[in-house]
Amino acid sequence: MTNTIREWEYHASVAPMTRREQQQQALRRDVIDAALAQLDEGGPAAVNWRALARAVAVSPSTLYTYFESLDALHTELIVEIYGQMAAEVARSVDRQAPATERARQAMAGYRRFATRHSARFTLVFTDVLPGYVAPAGGPTIGAQATVLLPMAEALAEVTGEQGVDIEAWSVGNRARAIGGWSQLHGFVCLEANHHLDWLGDRDAVFAAACDRILSTTLF
Amino acid sequence: MTNTIREWEYHASVAPMTRREQQQQALRRDVIDAALAQLDEGGPAAVNWRALARAVAVSPSTLYTYFESLDALHTELIVEIYGQMAAEVARSVDRQAPATERARQAMAGYRRFATRHSARFTLVFTDVLPGYVAPAGGPTIGAQATVLLPMAEALAEVTGEQGVDIEAWSVGNRARAIGGWSQLHGFVCLEANHHLDWLGDRDAVFAAACDRILSTTLF
DNA sequence: TTCGAATTTCGAACAGTGTTCACTGTACGG
DNA sequence: CCGTACAGTGAACACTGTTCGAAATTCGAA
Asked: Which chain B residue lies closest to A202 (C-alpha atoms)?
Protein backbone atom coordinates (compact mmCIF):
# COMPACT_ATOMS: atom_id res chain seq x y z
CA MET A 1 0.00 0.00 0.00
CA THR A 2 1.76 3.13 -1.24
CA ASN A 3 0.67 6.62 -0.33
CA THR A 4 2.78 8.39 -2.91
CA ILE A 5 0.71 10.31 -5.40
CA ARG A 6 1.65 9.47 -8.95
CA GLU A 7 1.98 12.53 -11.15
CA TRP A 8 -0.31 11.50 -13.98
CA GLU A 9 -3.14 11.00 -11.54
CA TYR A 10 -3.65 14.74 -11.69
CA HIS A 11 -4.44 14.57 -15.39
CA ALA A 12 -6.01 11.19 -16.00
CA SER A 13 -9.18 11.30 -13.93
CA VAL A 14 -10.80 8.18 -15.29
CA ALA A 15 -8.25 5.39 -15.01
CA PRO A 16 -5.75 5.88 -12.17
CA MET A 17 -4.40 2.35 -12.53
CA THR A 18 -1.07 0.74 -13.07
CA ARG A 19 -0.78 -2.37 -15.19
CA ARG A 20 -0.70 -4.47 -12.05
CA GLU A 21 -3.84 -2.89 -10.66
CA GLN A 22 -5.60 -3.51 -13.94
CA GLN A 23 -4.68 -7.18 -13.83
CA GLN A 24 -5.79 -7.36 -10.23
CA GLN A 25 -9.14 -5.82 -11.03
CA ALA A 26 -9.54 -8.20 -13.95
CA LEU A 27 -8.92 -11.17 -11.71
CA ARG A 28 -11.40 -9.85 -9.17
CA ARG A 29 -14.02 -9.73 -11.89
CA ASP A 30 -13.16 -13.26 -12.98
CA VAL A 31 -13.55 -14.50 -9.44
CA ILE A 32 -16.92 -12.81 -9.02
CA ASP A 33 -18.11 -14.20 -12.34
CA ALA A 34 -16.99 -17.67 -11.32
CA ALA A 35 -18.78 -17.23 -8.01
CA LEU A 36 -21.98 -16.28 -9.82
CA ALA A 37 -21.63 -19.40 -11.92
CA GLN A 38 -21.16 -21.55 -8.83
CA LEU A 39 -24.16 -19.83 -7.27
CA ASP A 40 -26.42 -20.47 -10.24
CA GLU A 41 -25.34 -24.06 -10.38
CA GLY A 42 -25.40 -25.22 -6.80
CA GLY A 43 -27.13 -22.60 -4.71
CA PRO A 44 -25.74 -20.22 -2.09
CA ALA A 45 -23.99 -22.91 -0.05
CA ALA A 46 -22.02 -24.03 -3.10
CA VAL A 47 -19.93 -20.90 -3.53
CA ASN A 48 -16.60 -22.47 -2.93
CA TRP A 49 -13.22 -20.94 -2.20
CA ARG A 50 -11.00 -23.66 -3.61
CA ALA A 51 -13.15 -24.18 -6.67
CA LEU A 52 -13.00 -20.45 -7.31
CA ALA A 53 -9.23 -20.62 -7.09
CA ARG A 54 -9.22 -23.46 -9.60
CA ALA A 55 -11.61 -21.55 -11.89
CA VAL A 56 -9.22 -18.61 -12.14
CA ALA A 57 -6.14 -20.87 -12.14
CA VAL A 58 -4.65 -19.59 -8.93
CA SER A 59 -3.70 -21.08 -5.61
CA PRO A 60 -6.34 -20.87 -2.86
CA SER A 61 -4.03 -18.87 -0.65
CA THR A 62 -3.40 -16.35 -3.44
CA LEU A 63 -7.08 -15.53 -3.45
CA TYR A 64 -6.63 -14.00 -0.03
CA THR A 65 -4.70 -11.20 -1.69
CA TYR A 66 -7.88 -10.20 -3.49
CA PHE A 67 -10.62 -10.97 -0.96
CA GLU A 68 -10.33 -10.87 2.78
CA SER A 69 -12.37 -14.02 3.30
CA LEU A 70 -15.31 -15.97 1.97
CA ASP A 71 -17.68 -13.74 3.89
CA ALA A 72 -16.15 -10.64 2.32
CA LEU A 73 -16.64 -12.20 -1.09
CA HIS A 74 -20.24 -12.93 -0.17
CA THR A 75 -20.79 -9.28 0.66
CA GLU A 76 -19.37 -8.23 -2.69
CA LEU A 77 -21.55 -10.81 -4.39
CA ILE A 78 -24.65 -9.42 -2.69
CA VAL A 79 -23.87 -5.90 -3.82
CA GLU A 80 -23.15 -7.14 -7.33
CA ILE A 81 -26.44 -9.03 -7.48
CA TYR A 82 -28.46 -6.12 -6.14
CA GLY A 83 -26.91 -4.08 -8.94
CA GLN A 84 -27.87 -6.64 -11.56
CA MET A 85 -31.40 -6.83 -10.22
CA ALA A 86 -31.75 -3.06 -10.08
CA ALA A 87 -30.55 -2.91 -13.68
CA GLU A 88 -33.10 -5.52 -14.73
CA VAL A 89 -35.89 -3.62 -13.00
CA ALA A 90 -34.80 -0.26 -14.40
CA ARG A 91 -34.47 -1.73 -17.88
CA SER A 92 -38.02 -3.03 -17.65
CA VAL A 93 -39.68 0.35 -17.17
CA ASP A 94 -40.48 2.85 -19.87
CA ARG A 95 -39.70 6.21 -18.33
CA GLN A 96 -42.26 7.87 -20.60
CA ALA A 97 -45.12 5.72 -19.35
CA PRO A 98 -47.55 6.82 -16.63
CA ALA A 99 -46.82 5.89 -13.04
CA THR A 100 -49.23 2.97 -12.88
CA GLU A 101 -47.77 1.38 -15.97
CA ARG A 102 -44.21 1.96 -14.76
CA ALA A 103 -45.01 0.28 -11.47
CA ARG A 104 -46.44 -2.70 -13.31
CA GLN A 105 -43.35 -2.97 -15.49
CA ALA A 106 -41.05 -2.70 -12.50
CA MET A 107 -42.89 -5.50 -10.73
CA ALA A 108 -42.61 -7.65 -13.82
CA GLY A 109 -38.85 -7.00 -13.86
CA TYR A 110 -38.58 -7.88 -10.18
CA ARG A 111 -40.34 -11.15 -10.85
CA ARG A 112 -38.39 -11.91 -14.00
CA PHE A 113 -35.05 -11.53 -12.24
CA ALA A 114 -36.16 -13.70 -9.32
CA THR A 115 -37.43 -16.54 -11.48
CA ARG A 116 -34.54 -16.44 -13.92
CA HIS A 117 -31.87 -16.20 -11.23
CA SER A 118 -33.51 -17.76 -8.22
CA ALA A 119 -30.24 -18.59 -6.47
CA ARG A 120 -29.04 -15.01 -6.73
CA PHE A 121 -32.41 -13.76 -5.56
CA THR A 122 -32.32 -16.11 -2.60
CA LEU A 123 -28.78 -15.11 -1.64
CA VAL A 124 -29.59 -11.42 -1.39
CA PHE A 125 -33.01 -11.65 0.23
CA THR A 126 -32.73 -14.49 2.74
CA ASP A 127 -30.26 -15.22 5.50
CA VAL A 128 -28.54 -18.34 4.25
CA LEU A 129 -25.02 -17.83 5.52
CA PRO A 130 -24.39 -18.95 9.09
CA GLY A 131 -23.90 -15.94 11.28
CA TYR A 132 -23.72 -13.50 8.41
CA VAL A 133 -25.33 -10.12 9.07
CA ALA A 134 -25.34 -7.25 6.63
CA PRO A 135 -22.80 -4.73 7.92
CA ALA A 136 -24.87 -1.89 9.41
CA GLY A 137 -24.61 1.13 7.20
CA GLY A 138 -22.78 -1.09 4.76
CA PRO A 139 -23.15 -1.11 1.01
CA THR A 140 -25.87 -3.76 0.86
CA ILE A 141 -28.55 -1.49 2.31
CA GLY A 142 -28.26 1.18 -0.35
CA ALA A 143 -27.94 -1.44 -3.04
CA GLN A 144 -31.27 -2.91 -2.04
CA ALA A 145 -32.93 0.49 -2.16
CA THR A 146 -31.78 0.82 -5.76
CA VAL A 147 -33.85 -2.21 -6.71
CA LEU A 148 -36.97 -0.59 -5.32
CA LEU A 149 -36.22 2.83 -6.77
CA PRO A 150 -38.52 2.74 -9.83
CA MET A 151 -41.44 1.55 -7.72
CA ALA A 152 -40.75 4.19 -5.10
CA GLU A 153 -40.66 6.84 -7.82
CA ALA A 154 -44.01 5.74 -9.20
CA LEU A 155 -45.56 5.71 -5.76
CA ALA A 156 -44.07 9.08 -4.89
CA GLU A 157 -45.50 10.54 -8.08
CA VAL A 158 -48.98 9.31 -7.22
CA THR A 159 -48.95 10.21 -3.54
CA GLY A 160 -47.17 13.52 -4.00
CA GLU A 161 -44.42 12.59 -1.58
CA GLN A 162 -41.22 14.55 -2.04
CA GLY A 163 -38.20 12.45 -2.78
CA VAL A 164 -37.77 8.73 -2.86
CA ASP A 165 -36.56 7.96 0.65
CA ILE A 166 -39.36 5.82 2.03
CA GLU A 167 -38.23 6.35 5.60
CA ALA A 168 -39.01 10.02 5.24
CA TRP A 169 -42.58 9.47 4.01
CA SER A 170 -45.74 9.80 6.03
CA VAL A 171 -46.77 6.83 8.12
CA GLY A 172 -49.64 5.99 5.82
CA ASN A 173 -47.66 6.17 2.61
CA ARG A 174 -44.81 4.22 4.15
CA ALA A 175 -47.21 1.47 5.13
CA ARG A 176 -48.59 1.48 1.61
CA ALA A 177 -45.09 1.14 0.16
CA ILE A 178 -44.17 -1.71 2.47
CA GLY A 179 -47.51 -3.35 1.77
CA GLY A 180 -47.05 -3.23 -1.97
CA TRP A 181 -43.49 -4.45 -1.81
CA SER A 182 -44.31 -7.36 0.47
CA GLN A 183 -47.20 -8.44 -1.73
CA LEU A 184 -44.92 -8.52 -4.73
CA HIS A 185 -42.08 -10.09 -2.80
CA GLY A 186 -44.30 -12.81 -1.33
CA PHE A 187 -45.56 -14.08 -4.65
CA VAL A 188 -42.11 -13.94 -6.17
CA CYS A 189 -40.55 -15.76 -3.22
CA LEU A 190 -43.07 -18.56 -3.34
CA GLU A 191 -42.65 -18.89 -7.09
CA ALA A 192 -38.83 -18.78 -7.05
CA ASN A 193 -38.72 -21.46 -4.37
CA HIS A 194 -41.01 -23.76 -6.32
CA HIS A 195 -43.96 -23.56 -3.96
CA LEU A 196 -46.29 -22.66 -6.81
CA ASP A 197 -45.15 -25.27 -9.31
CA TRP A 198 -48.55 -26.96 -9.08
CA LEU A 199 -50.23 -23.78 -10.32
CA GLY A 200 -51.00 -24.08 -14.00
CA ASP A 201 -51.70 -20.42 -14.68
CA ARG A 202 -48.99 -18.67 -12.70
CA ASP A 203 -48.75 -15.77 -15.12
CA ALA A 204 -52.46 -15.02 -14.82
CA VAL A 205 -52.35 -15.25 -11.03
CA PHE A 206 -49.36 -12.92 -10.97
CA ALA A 207 -51.15 -10.44 -13.21
CA ALA A 208 -54.14 -10.53 -10.88
CA ALA A 209 -51.84 -9.98 -7.92
CA CYS A 210 -50.30 -6.99 -9.68
CA ASP A 211 -53.73 -5.52 -10.33
CA ARG A 212 -54.57 -5.89 -6.67
CA ILE A 213 -51.29 -4.33 -5.61
CA LEU A 214 -51.77 -1.38 -7.93
CA SER A 215 -55.36 -0.76 -6.86
CA THR A 216 -54.64 -1.05 -3.14
CA THR A 217 -51.39 0.87 -2.91
CA LEU A 218 -51.41 3.38 -5.76
CA PHE A 219 -54.93 4.70 -5.20
CA MET B 1 -34.57 -56.13 8.73
CA THR B 2 -36.73 -59.11 9.76
CA ASN B 3 -39.92 -60.03 7.97
CA THR B 4 -41.19 -62.41 10.61
CA ILE B 5 -44.47 -61.26 12.12
CA ARG B 6 -44.30 -61.14 15.87
CA GLU B 7 -47.30 -62.70 17.55
CA TRP B 8 -48.24 -59.86 19.86
CA GLU B 9 -48.44 -57.49 16.93
CA TYR B 10 -51.88 -58.91 16.32
CA HIS B 11 -53.04 -57.73 19.72
CA ALA B 12 -51.01 -54.65 20.59
CA SER B 13 -51.94 -52.15 17.94
CA VAL B 14 -50.35 -49.06 19.45
CA ALA B 15 -46.76 -49.90 20.34
CA PRO B 16 -45.22 -52.61 18.18
CA MET B 17 -41.71 -51.92 19.45
CA THR B 18 -38.98 -53.89 21.06
CA ARG B 19 -36.69 -52.32 23.62
CA ARG B 20 -34.09 -51.81 20.93
CA GLU B 21 -36.51 -50.08 18.62
CA GLN B 22 -37.58 -47.80 21.44
CA GLN B 23 -33.98 -46.78 22.10
CA GLN B 24 -33.46 -46.23 18.42
CA GLN B 25 -36.49 -43.99 18.17
CA ALA B 26 -35.32 -42.08 21.23
CA LEU B 27 -31.95 -41.47 19.63
CA ARG B 28 -33.60 -40.34 16.43
CA ARG B 29 -35.53 -37.76 18.42
CA ASP B 30 -32.37 -36.62 20.17
CA VAL B 31 -30.64 -36.16 16.86
CA ILE B 32 -33.52 -34.14 15.43
CA ASP B 33 -33.63 -31.99 18.55
CA ALA B 34 -29.90 -31.39 18.31
CA ALA B 35 -30.31 -30.51 14.64
CA LEU B 36 -33.00 -27.99 15.51
CA ALA B 37 -30.64 -26.47 18.05
CA GLN B 38 -27.85 -26.24 15.47
CA LEU B 39 -30.32 -24.72 13.03
CA ASP B 40 -31.49 -22.06 15.46
CA GLU B 41 -27.93 -21.20 16.35
CA GLY B 42 -26.13 -21.05 13.03
CA GLY B 43 -28.71 -21.16 10.26
CA PRO B 44 -29.49 -23.86 7.72
CA ALA B 45 -25.92 -24.35 6.54
CA ALA B 46 -24.75 -25.07 10.08
CA VAL B 47 -26.60 -28.33 10.59
CA ASN B 48 -23.60 -30.52 11.03
CA TRP B 49 -23.23 -34.27 10.90
CA ARG B 50 -20.22 -34.65 13.16
CA ALA B 51 -21.47 -32.13 15.68
CA LEU B 52 -24.77 -34.01 15.79
CA ALA B 53 -22.85 -37.20 16.50
CA ARG B 54 -21.03 -35.45 19.34
CA ALA B 55 -24.28 -34.03 20.68
CA VAL B 56 -25.80 -37.49 21.06
CA ALA B 57 -22.47 -39.03 22.12
CA VAL B 58 -22.12 -41.39 19.20
CA SER B 59 -19.62 -41.92 16.44
CA PRO B 60 -20.36 -40.14 13.14
CA SER B 61 -20.52 -43.43 11.31
CA THR B 62 -23.06 -44.77 13.76
CA LEU B 63 -25.43 -42.00 12.77
CA TYR B 64 -25.71 -43.64 9.38
CA THR B 65 -27.64 -46.43 11.05
CA TYR B 66 -30.38 -43.95 11.85
CA PHE B 67 -30.36 -41.57 8.89
CA GLU B 68 -29.42 -42.38 5.34
CA SER B 69 -27.50 -39.15 4.82
CA LEU B 70 -27.47 -35.48 5.69
CA ASP B 71 -30.00 -34.80 2.97
CA ALA B 72 -32.34 -37.41 4.39
CA LEU B 73 -32.03 -35.76 7.78
CA HIS B 74 -32.81 -32.44 6.15
CA THR B 75 -36.00 -33.86 4.71
CA GLU B 76 -37.06 -35.13 8.11
CA LEU B 77 -36.23 -31.77 9.60
CA ILE B 78 -38.43 -30.01 7.07
CA VAL B 79 -41.37 -32.27 7.83
CA GLU B 80 -40.81 -31.80 11.55
CA ILE B 81 -40.70 -28.02 11.21
CA TYR B 82 -43.81 -27.89 9.05
CA GLY B 83 -45.51 -29.84 11.82
CA GLN B 84 -44.34 -27.40 14.48
CA MET B 85 -45.46 -24.47 12.40
CA ALA B 86 -48.83 -26.02 11.67
CA ALA B 87 -49.26 -26.63 15.39
CA GLU B 88 -48.40 -23.03 16.17
CA VAL B 89 -50.91 -21.78 13.60
CA ALA B 90 -53.62 -24.17 14.74
CA ARG B 91 -53.01 -23.27 18.37
CA SER B 92 -53.45 -19.61 17.53
CA VAL B 93 -57.00 -19.88 16.21
CA ASP B 94 -60.15 -20.05 18.28
CA ARG B 95 -62.33 -22.56 16.53
CA GLN B 96 -65.45 -20.86 17.88
CA ALA B 97 -64.60 -17.51 16.29
CA PRO B 98 -66.02 -16.35 12.96
CA ALA B 99 -64.05 -17.00 9.81
CA THR B 100 -62.58 -13.52 9.50
CA GLU B 101 -61.26 -13.59 13.04
CA ARG B 102 -59.89 -17.10 12.62
CA ALA B 103 -58.03 -16.03 9.49
CA ARG B 104 -56.53 -13.09 11.35
CA GLN B 105 -55.42 -15.33 14.21
CA ALA B 106 -53.93 -17.85 11.81
CA MET B 107 -51.93 -15.14 10.06
CA ALA B 108 -50.65 -13.91 13.42
CA GLY B 109 -49.53 -17.45 14.23
CA TYR B 110 -47.80 -17.76 10.86
CA ARG B 111 -45.93 -14.55 11.55
CA ARG B 112 -45.12 -15.45 15.14
CA PHE B 113 -43.53 -18.74 14.14
CA ALA B 114 -41.49 -17.12 11.38
CA THR B 115 -40.11 -14.34 13.56
CA ARG B 116 -39.47 -16.54 16.57
CA HIS B 117 -37.83 -19.33 14.54
CA SER B 118 -36.53 -17.58 11.49
CA ALA B 119 -33.94 -20.21 10.66
CA ARG B 120 -36.55 -22.97 10.71
CA PHE B 121 -38.88 -20.83 8.63
CA THR B 122 -36.11 -20.17 6.12
CA LEU B 123 -35.16 -23.83 5.89
CA VAL B 124 -38.65 -24.98 4.94
CA PHE B 125 -39.62 -22.15 2.63
CA THR B 126 -36.46 -21.38 0.66
CA ASP B 127 -34.10 -23.53 -1.35
CA VAL B 128 -30.92 -23.35 0.67
CA LEU B 129 -29.49 -26.81 0.12
CA PRO B 130 -27.50 -27.23 -3.08
CA GLY B 131 -29.41 -29.40 -5.47
CA TYR B 132 -32.05 -30.37 -2.97
CA VAL B 133 -35.53 -30.70 -4.39
CA ALA B 134 -38.58 -31.75 -2.42
CA PRO B 135 -39.34 -35.35 -3.48
CA ALA B 136 -42.41 -35.10 -5.72
CA GLY B 137 -45.38 -36.52 -3.88
CA GLY B 138 -43.12 -36.69 -0.85
CA PRO B 139 -44.09 -35.88 2.70
CA THR B 140 -43.05 -32.22 2.58
CA ILE B 141 -45.89 -31.22 0.26
CA GLY B 142 -48.66 -32.43 2.53
CA ALA B 143 -46.89 -31.04 5.55
CA GLN B 144 -46.89 -27.60 4.01
CA ALA B 145 -50.60 -27.82 3.27
CA THR B 146 -51.18 -28.48 6.96
CA VAL B 147 -49.74 -25.09 7.83
CA LEU B 148 -52.22 -23.38 5.54
CA LEU B 149 -55.17 -25.49 6.65
CA PRO B 150 -56.84 -23.05 9.08
CA MET B 151 -56.64 -20.26 6.54
CA ALA B 152 -58.00 -22.49 3.81
CA GLU B 153 -60.87 -23.49 6.09
CA ALA B 154 -61.76 -19.89 6.79
CA LEU B 155 -61.64 -19.01 3.12
CA ALA B 156 -63.68 -22.06 2.16
CA GLU B 157 -66.31 -21.11 4.71
CA VAL B 158 -66.63 -17.64 3.23
CA THR B 159 -66.55 -18.62 -0.43
CA GLY B 160 -68.70 -21.69 -0.02
CA GLU B 161 -66.08 -23.94 -1.59
CA GLN B 162 -66.44 -27.58 -0.66
CA GLY B 163 -63.41 -29.05 1.04
CA VAL B 164 -60.03 -27.60 1.72
CA ASP B 165 -58.01 -28.73 -1.27
CA ILE B 166 -57.11 -25.47 -2.96
CA GLU B 167 -56.23 -27.20 -6.21
CA ALA B 168 -59.84 -28.27 -6.54
CA TRP B 169 -61.26 -24.77 -6.11
CA SER B 170 -62.52 -22.49 -8.83
CA VAL B 171 -59.92 -20.44 -10.67
CA GLY B 172 -61.04 -17.23 -9.00
CA ASN B 173 -61.04 -18.59 -5.48
CA ARG B 174 -57.73 -20.29 -6.04
CA ALA B 175 -56.20 -17.02 -7.18
CA ARG B 176 -57.67 -15.35 -4.09
CA ALA B 177 -56.13 -17.99 -1.84
CA ILE B 178 -52.71 -17.70 -3.45
CA GLY B 179 -52.96 -13.93 -3.34
CA GLY B 180 -53.73 -13.87 0.36
CA TRP B 181 -51.03 -16.37 1.18
CA SER B 182 -48.37 -14.56 -0.79
CA GLN B 183 -49.26 -11.23 0.80
CA LEU B 184 -48.86 -12.75 4.23
CA HIS B 185 -45.76 -14.69 3.25
CA GLY B 186 -44.10 -11.66 1.70
CA PHE B 187 -44.33 -9.48 4.76
CA VAL B 188 -43.25 -12.32 7.01
CA CYS B 189 -40.28 -13.17 4.78
CA LEU B 190 -39.04 -9.61 4.70
CA GLU B 191 -39.42 -9.30 8.44
CA ALA B 192 -37.79 -12.64 9.27
CA ASN B 193 -34.81 -11.79 7.10
CA HIS B 194 -34.30 -8.43 8.75
CA HIS B 195 -35.27 -6.31 5.77
CA LEU B 196 -37.78 -4.35 7.87
CA ASP B 197 -35.59 -3.72 10.89
CA TRP B 198 -35.61 0.00 10.13
CA LEU B 199 -39.41 0.06 10.49
CA GLY B 200 -40.36 1.38 13.88
CA ASP B 201 -43.97 0.27 13.88
CA ARG B 202 -43.80 -3.18 12.37
CA ASP B 203 -46.76 -4.48 14.35
CA ALA B 204 -48.99 -1.70 13.10
CA VAL B 205 -47.87 -2.19 9.50
CA PHE B 206 -48.51 -5.91 9.82
CA ALA B 207 -51.98 -5.26 11.23
CA ALA B 208 -52.72 -2.98 8.30
CA ALA B 209 -51.47 -5.63 5.90
CA CYS B 210 -53.76 -8.18 7.54
CA ASP B 211 -56.73 -5.86 7.16
CA ARG B 212 -55.93 -5.45 3.50
CA ILE B 213 -55.55 -9.18 3.04
CA LEU B 214 -58.85 -9.89 4.75
CA SER B 215 -60.76 -7.26 2.81
CA THR B 216 -59.32 -8.25 -0.57
CA THR B 217 -59.46 -12.03 -0.28
CA LEU B 218 -62.28 -12.82 2.10
CA PHE B 219 -64.88 -10.51 0.59
C1' DT C 1 20.72 -1.03 -15.67
C1' DT C 2 21.02 -2.59 -11.27
C1' DC C 3 19.92 -3.19 -6.52
C1' DG C 4 16.78 -3.40 -2.65
C1' DA C 5 12.43 -3.45 -0.99
C1' DA C 6 7.71 -4.52 -1.35
C1' DT C 7 4.32 -7.45 -2.82
C1' DT C 8 2.36 -11.38 -5.09
C1' DT C 9 2.30 -16.33 -5.29
C1' DC C 10 2.77 -20.78 -3.76
C1' DG C 11 2.88 -25.25 -1.25
C1' DA C 12 2.41 -27.35 2.95
C1' DA C 13 -0.05 -27.67 7.01
C1' DC C 14 -4.12 -27.53 10.37
C1' DA C 15 -8.60 -28.26 11.76
C1' DG C 16 -12.77 -29.13 10.17
C1' DT C 17 -16.47 -31.45 7.01
C1' DG C 18 -19.58 -35.83 4.81
C1' DT C 19 -19.11 -40.50 3.78
C1' DT C 20 -17.34 -45.39 3.35
C1' DC C 21 -15.67 -49.62 5.08
C1' DA C 22 -13.62 -53.46 7.46
C1' DC C 23 -13.78 -54.65 11.95
C1' DT C 24 -15.47 -55.56 16.54
C1' DG C 25 -18.58 -56.58 20.56
C1' DT C 26 -23.05 -57.51 22.05
C1' DA C 27 -27.77 -58.77 22.35
C1' DC C 28 -31.42 -61.23 20.46
C1' DG C 29 -34.11 -65.38 18.43
C1' DG C 30 -34.42 -70.10 17.68
C1' DC D 1 -26.93 -71.84 24.89
C1' DC D 2 -25.12 -70.75 20.67
C1' DG D 3 -24.94 -68.58 16.03
C1' DT D 4 -26.12 -64.88 13.78
C1' DA D 5 -27.46 -60.45 12.75
C1' DC D 6 -26.58 -55.92 13.71
C1' DA D 7 -25.34 -51.55 16.38
C1' DG D 8 -21.16 -49.32 17.15
C1' DT D 9 -16.40 -48.12 16.12
C1' DG D 10 -11.99 -45.94 14.35
C1' DA D 11 -9.38 -45.26 10.50
C1' DA D 12 -9.31 -43.60 6.01
C1' DC D 13 -10.58 -40.64 1.79
C1' DA D 14 -11.61 -36.62 -0.48
C1' DC D 15 -13.12 -32.50 0.41
C1' DT D 16 -13.57 -27.61 2.77
C1' DG D 17 -11.65 -22.47 4.71
C1' DT D 18 -7.70 -20.47 6.48
C1' DT D 19 -2.75 -19.55 8.03
C1' DC D 20 2.08 -19.15 7.46
C1' DG D 21 6.87 -19.22 5.93
C1' DA D 22 9.47 -19.30 2.03
C1' DA D 23 10.18 -18.45 -2.88
C1' DA D 24 9.39 -15.71 -6.87
C1' DT D 25 8.20 -11.72 -9.08
C1' DT D 26 7.53 -6.98 -9.79
C1' DC D 27 8.36 -2.21 -8.80
C1' DG D 28 10.69 2.26 -7.62
C1' DA D 29 14.64 4.63 -7.01
C1' DA D 30 19.70 5.19 -7.59
From this structure: B175
- The pLDDT assigned to A76 comes to 94
Contact A79, A139 (CB under 8 A): yes
Comparing every residue's Cα with the C1' atom of nucleotide D8, the nearest one is B62
What letter represents residue B159's amino acid?
T
**Contact residues for strand D with beta carbon within 7 Å:** A 2, 4, 6, 18-20, 47-51, 60-61, 64, 69-71; B 1-2, 20, 23-24, 27, 58-62, 65-66
CA–CA separation, A39 vs B215, rounded Å?
Answer: 40
Which of B133, B179, B185 lies nearest to residue A208, judging by beta carbons?
B179
Give every CB contact of residue A97 below 8 A, 6+ residues apart in sequence: A105
Contact B121, B128 (CB under 8 A): no
Of all nucleotides in the shown strands, which has a C1' nearest the CA of A62? C9
- Give the pLDDT confidence of A143-197 residue by residue, as tens digits: 899 999 999 999 999 999 999 999 999 999 999 999 999 999 999 999 999 999 9
Residue ranges of chain B with per-residue pLDDT less than 70: 1-18, 130-137, 219
* Out of A77-86, A203-212, B11-20, B181-190, least confident range: B11-20
Q: Nearest C-alpha of chain B: how many angstroms from A158?
A: 20
The closest of B63, B66, B111, B48 to B85, measured between CA atoms, is B111
pLDDT of amino acid B24 = 83
**Which has the closest alpha carbon to B154: B98, B81, B202?**
B98
Name which of B212, B195, B216, B211 is nearest A166 in CA terms. B195
As a whole number of angstroms, the distance between CA B64 and CA B43 comes to 23
Q: Please, which residues have CB within 8 angstroms of residue A203's CB and are 6 or more apart in sequence?
A: none
